[in-house]
Write a structure and sequence with these properties.
Helix 4 packs antiparallel against helix 5 and helix 7 crosses helix 8. This protein has 217 residues and is mostly helical. It contains 11 helices and no strands. The protein has a single domain, classed as Heme oxygenase-like (Heme Oxygenase, Chain A, Up-down Bundle), CATH 1.20.910.10. The site of protoporphyrin IX containing FE (HEM) has 17 residues, from helix 2, helix 3, helix 8, helix 9 and helix 11. Protoporphyrin IX containing FE binds next to helix 2, helix 3, helix 8, helix 9 and helix 11. Keywords: Heme, Iron, Metal-binding. InterPro entries: Haem_Oase, Haem_Oase-like, Haem_Oase-like_multi-hlx. This is Biliverdin-producing heme oxygenase.
Length: 217
Amino acid sequence: MESESFSTLLRTASREQHEEVRGSSFIGALLGRKLGVEAFARYTEQLWFVYGALEAGARHLAADPVAGPFLRPELFRRAALERDLEHLRGPGWRRTAGALPATLEYAERISVCARTWPAGYVAHHYTRYMGDLSGGQIIRDTAERTWGFPKKGDGVRFYVFEEIPNPAAFKRAYCELLDALPGDRLERQRTVAECKRAYALNNGMFEALGEEFPLTA
Ligand code: HEM
């Protein structure tokens, strides 16, 4: 019955949501090199709020038997985002940084999971970091070419996992952790549902960014 591994289940069950988020107009405009660097800076700023919640949650869950094994310091992105924002916005970036309502909603959901439901937190952890290690590299490449950032340098450090020399091997090990997650069938279903919710929250953020940076013909 349970022939499919949990990592495979998670990937296949969220495939549609992945395509949806990938097809959002903001991502389309970004990959189509139709946006100004200000839109990229605003997106990076939103990620700073999201990873603030994700990585504050990580500190809280370090000793947790379910979420603890996923919390690898080589994944942490907050410091890289701060360097990028300093480059994109200048040293005063913190004074003007503001989260969109959709970003606040996303960050708040992560915080609630971190406080109350470790497997739900893992669903958010997976959706962000595995995405960053995969499609994130396409965004980095596009950003470097569109706005002339130094390759893997300031502006796109968020996308560079310096302490993960072999992302494919890292992802395989991560999937093994997912497959070893404790929990019965119902808990797995709830975790899959939370992963879909994480995609929906990302989509909401992209929609809001798309409204802020509409493409004029
Ligand atoms: C620029 C837009 C995006 C592109 C081009 C893209 C592309 C990709 C690609 C090529 C993979 C690898 C698939 C594989 O190894 O089989 C992947 C995996 C993944 N992406 Fe994206 N992606 C994008 C945006 C996103 C976003 C916004 C999220 C969620 C926030 C996301 C979450 C994921 C996850 C969780 C995986 C890992 C799937 C797994 O192997 O379990 N992606 N993406």
